[in-house]
Design a protein that fits this description.
With about 475 residues, this protein is α/β, with parallel strands linked by helices. It has two domains: about 5-30 and about 405-485, Sandwich (Immunoglobulin-like); about 35-400, TIM Barrel (Alpha-Beta Barrel), CATH 3.20.20. The chain contains ten helices and 20 strands. Strands 18-17-20-15-14-13-2-1-16-19 form a ten-stranded antiparallel sheet. An eight-stranded parallel beta barrel has the order 3-4-5-8-9-10-11-12, surrounded by six helices. The radius of gyration is 23 Å and the shape is globular. The two termini are about 20 Å apart. About 45% of the residues are buried.
Length: about 475
């Protein structure tokens, strides 16, 4: 029998009783094969602009990850950074302007070159919807403006106008330019590969969409982009609230779409929410309880998908946690341990979604900062250094991926979540301490000499620590995420 026993010893005062707990790995017994790619999303905001104090370090960190399927989202709080045509055509002239969009988008595409990406220019020009009066956009492109997406009725009920906008936007980056509404040619010179295009973002929260109206909108945009890029695949839904069974029932039914509309992939989001007043000792239970509730929803969604459109893939492309202080004082202090808790949450969901055969598991987001969801950031917005959330994604991405075999791994008491993998790199064990208590691991002889890579409160914003365990074993500090590599 090719089995490994990994004994788990909880730190004093219960160490004697805890010696009974052990992790048993049967390397010969494969339970499933992973389909899951760990990745992240990059949301456009001012710290990503050229000239920002953290610009260079942030894009270097993104490139260093080397992830596939990174999601790029220019979105509504910064209309001048995400909308290419802010005014309707008038007097034979148009307002197409990529001068603010290009530096951000090009820097992203260069940092992810060689990897498939998912682009999502999520914000429709506001003038394409009927509103009581024109929406005035702040002159300062860095000003947060949450009121941009007004109106519920499109000026063109067929959605063709919106579809044409996205075809031109796509063509600017992938086909070297486009012809505008007046017949004028706009040349960009860009010919980037865009293998995936996600059709809008959190549509259940914007423009009072229903499953029916979004499906018509999706079909119009897809049909228009396919005219210039028949090879591109599409991602649909991007729901903010994943517990929307009527959306999946309608959208995933091919009968509700135009002929030959692809249903390549669906997406939805999850954020644990907590109060900064709870502190990490309480918040750990809040976050993981919410995560378990989300995982039950995923099982339900998967049942619908498998029944209606089993060839459709799934990306959970926003996974993170949000503190109540994000919408309060910009000076609120986030505890250092929070970043480890939030990173452990992602690691836990990555593992559980891998067990459920979800295709892409995306952490949110590369940069947040005060006034723009600071608790969701993977980068220290003051220094540009990656924080624990980033480093946890990196050790997962560097060790695990599609094609890995998940082998039989027993449960462990004491708040430890563990899974052994046979990977292309060799034997790997993912260890997650979901608690704010240290845990001592006594390793059997065949794993002594294996390398342990760990992110925990002691590593802070620095790279993961690496140790070679000896006969005395290893200690997993509170909220640690570690990979044991043989």
């Amino acid at each position: 029998m090719n089995k490994t026993w990994l004994f788990v010893l909880l730190a004093a005062p219960v160490i004697a009783d805890a010696q009974k707990d052990s992790l048993i790995i049967d390397w010969n017994k494969v339970g499933s094969v992973s389909k899951s790619t760990p990745t992240l999303q990059v949301v456009v905001n001012p710290p990503l602009r050229r000239g920002s104090a953290i610009h260079d370090a942030t894009f270097a960190a993104l490139a260093a990850l080397g992830c596939d399927y990174v999601r790029y989202v220019p979105w509504l709080p910064y209309p001048r950074l995400g909308v290419a045509e802010l005014q309707p055509p008038s007097g034979g002239r148009t307002s197409w302007d990529f001068s603010l969009l290009d530096p951000l988008t090009v820097d992203f595409l260069e940092a992810t070159k060689g990897h498939p990406v998912i682009l999502n220019f999520s914000t429709i020009p506001e003038w394409m919807y009927t509103t009581d009066k024109p929406v005035e956009v702040p002159a300062n492109p860095d000003s947060v403006f949450w009121d941009y997406t007004q109106g519920t009725a499109p000026r063109d009920p067929s959605y063709q106008q919106i579809g044409d906008y996205y075809r031109r936007l796509f063509s600017w980056y992938a086909r070297g330019g486009f012809r505008d509404e007046t017949g004028r040619e706009h040349h960009s010179g860009y010919h980037y590969a865009i293998p995936y295009w996600e059709v809008l973002n959190e549509v259940d929260f914007e423009h009072a969409n229903t499953a029916q109206s979004y499906t018509r909108l999706y079909d119009a945009i897809v049909t228009s982009i396919q005219k210039v890029a028949p090879e591109t695949k599409f991602v649909g839904l991007a729901l903010a609230d994943p517990i929307r069974p009527e959306w999946y029932e309608y959208f995933l039914n091919p009968k509700n779409h135009r002929p030959n509309i692809p249903l390549d992939m669906i997406s939805y989001h999850f954020y644990a929410s907590g109060s900064i007043q709870q502190g990490v000792p309480v918040m750990q239970y809040t976050f993981f309880d919410q995560a378990d509730g989300f995982l039950k929803a995923v099982k339900f969604i998967e049942a619908i998908r498998m029944r209606l459109s089993p060839a459709t893939r799934t990306t959970v492309d926003e996974i993170g946690s949000i503190l109540n202080s994000d919408n309060g004082s910009p000076d609120a202090v986030i505890p250092d341990e929070y970043w480890n808790l939030s990173g452990a949450l992602y690691a836990y969901l990555y593992l559980e979604l891998t067990r459920m055969h979800i295709d892409i598991v995306g952490e949110s987001q590369l940069v947040g900062y005060p006034t723009q969801y600071p608790s969701v950031s993977m980068i220290n917005w003051k220094t540009g250094k990656p924080n624990a959330r980033y480093w946890i994604l990196k050790i997962i991405k560097d060790n695990f991926g599609p094609g890995d075999s998940l082998v039989s791994t027993s449960d462990v008491n004491g708040g430890i979540v563990a899974q052994a993998f046979q990977t292309r790199h060799g034997k790997r064990v993912l260890l997650i301490n979901r608690t704010d208590r240290p845990v001592l691991l006594a390793l059997p002889p065949d794993l002594q000499g294996a390398k342990l890579t760990v992110v925990d409160p002691s590593t802070g914003d620095n790279a993961p620590a690496s140790v070679v365990p000896g006969q005395e074993g290893i200690e997993l500090k509170p909220l640690a995420v570690a990979v044991l590599a043989q």
